[in-house]
Design a protein that fits this description.
The complex is a heterodimer of chains A (40) and B (239). Chain A is mainly α. Chain A is built from one helix and no strands. Classes of the chains: A mainly alpha (40), B mainly alpha (239). Chains A and B meet through helix 1 of A and helix 1, helix 2, helix 3 and helix 8 of B.
């Protein structure tokens, strides 16, 4: 049987990446609106 | 009340959800035994199954909020539906990424047109279409109405996705803890009837709770963004 460890690490890495990227996308979109509306 | 464009206080639910997810990952990786036949790849199960559960719940709530919007015409319901749909798409994306990563070493292929896999892909496309539809319509009332209908119709696929492993001869494993027999065995507390060894079952249940909390945190953050976007749109219309 082949080693399944690389797949295990890949599964965890893509999951963490997906959630972190989504959290960042919300932050960036809000920030863009805020930068346009708040006086500097 | 959250004012548009204002910096908000630290979101404790988001912090708690983040910590719960990290604790779940640590438990799954270092404190949960390896499954004898599948080895380390089986641990993907602790991410894949909770993501699927949260996605189903998210899309079910999109349908519920959409139907409630059609009745009450409350824009908060529309904002919630839009937020839940987007978060549901993220969780479904995780399901569709982790599934093939598990399937490659276990089945020998990344993807097969199995009814469960295919119907999950359809579900993902429907709610991706929901997001595209919302982006394409400028009129807020029309956007809310059309997306409520699409959101409610899309959720009709959820029972089919769940039952597809029973209805067809499928490659995808049947639910480990989602079947009536497994739920009865868990409630009975009889270790001989348990669908999973206790350590694995506990990790799965902890992961379900942690990812549900992450869903709540994401929807709250996305809802705040929707408020800001609506305020920006209102300013654009007024000027």
């Amino acid at each position: 049987m082949i080693s399944t460890e690389p797949y295990y690490y890949a599964g965890y890495a893509v999951t963490i990446a997906a959630y972190v990227l989504y959290a960042l996308s919300i932050h960036v979109r809000r920030r863009a609106i805020r930068d346009r509306t708040e006086p500097r | 009340m959250i004012e548009p464009g204002r910096r908000t206080r630290p979101d404790w639910i988001a912090w708690i959800a983040g910590l719960a997810v990290v604790a779940t990952l640590v438990r799954a990786m270092f404190f949960t035994p390896l499954e004898a036949r599948q080895g380390a790849a089986q641990k993907i199960f602790y991410l894949h199954v909770p993501a699927a559960w949260v996605a189903f719940m998210a899309f079910g709530l999109v349908a519920f909020a959409g139907l409630a919007y059609l009745w009450l015409r409350d824009e908060r319901l529309d904002r919630f539906a839009a937020s839940s749909a987007e978060v549901g798409v993220v969780f479904t994306t995780v399901v569709l990424l982790t599934g093939p990563i598990w399937a490659r070493p276990i089945w020998g292929v990344w993807w097969t047109w199995d009814p469960r896999l295919t119907s999950t892909l359809f579900l993902w496309f429907i709610y991706l279409g929901y997001i595209v539809l919302r982006g394409a319509l400028d009129d807020r009332a029309m956007r809310a109405r059309y997306s409520a209908i699409l959101g409610a119709l899309g959720a009709l696929l959820i029972p089919f996705v769940h039952l597809s492993v029973y209805m067809f001869r499928a490659a995808h494993p049947q639910p480990v803890v989602g079947s009536p027999q497994a739920i009865a065995a868990i409630i009975s507390g009889d270790p001989a009837r348990a669908p999973l060894p206790p350590a694995m079952l506990q990790t799965l249940l902890i992961a379900l709770a942690a990812f549900t909390l992450l869903y709540v945190a994401f929807v709250r953050a996305r809802y705040r963004l929707a408020i800001d976007q609506d305020a920006q749109y209102a300013r654009g219309v007024a000027s």
